[in-house]
Amino acid sequence: MSTTTVAPLTTEDAELLVATARRAAEDAGVTVSVTVLDAGGHLLAFRRDDRAVLISGETSTRKAYTALQLNAPTADLVDAVQPGGLFHTLPTALDRPLLFIAGGVPVRRDGRLIGAIGVGGGAPEQDHGFATAAVEALA
Asked: pLDDT tens for residues 104-135?
């Protein structure tokens, strides 16, 4: 029996994700907070600009956590929590509440989930774009 080893998300990877998302946001004239979690949900990197709305830090963390727990971009999950949606009755008795607003994106390596990034502070569609740009830069 063979096992496949996948390199974990490193601190260097996390710092690259944060820097890329921040740069994309700055290029768009938006101030954001960025959170990167490893596959176990542990904080690897975080950045909140002093000009960012205070709650953007919690927002970015919850977006990353949601993307990690459900292994999907939060932008793809918005409809799932509406009445009649797949997750409408999802229990909220987790470590921290899930947040179904675009801006959380899973990070994968060799097809396996190794972490997640969350961006908060801009419009949800902007946050999603900043997070996606960061993940693409890591690839």
From this structure: 999 999 999 999 999 999 999 999 999 999 99
Return the CA Rg of the chain: 14
Residue 72: partners with Cβ closer than 8 Å, 6 or more residues away: 106
Following DSSP, what letter does each residue of the chain receive, concatenated? ------PPPPHHHHHHHHHHHHHHHHHTT---EEEEEETTS-EEEEEE-TTS-TTHHHHHHHHHHHHHHHTS-GGGTTGGGSTTSTTTT----SSS----SS-EEEEEETTEEEEEEEEESS-HHHHHHHHHHHHHHH-
Per the structure block, which two tokens stand in for 107? 């990070």
Phi, psi of 64 (to 5 degrees): -60, -45
Model pLDDT for residues 31-48, shown as the tens digit of each residue: 999 999 999 999 999 898
**What is this structure's pTM?**
0.86
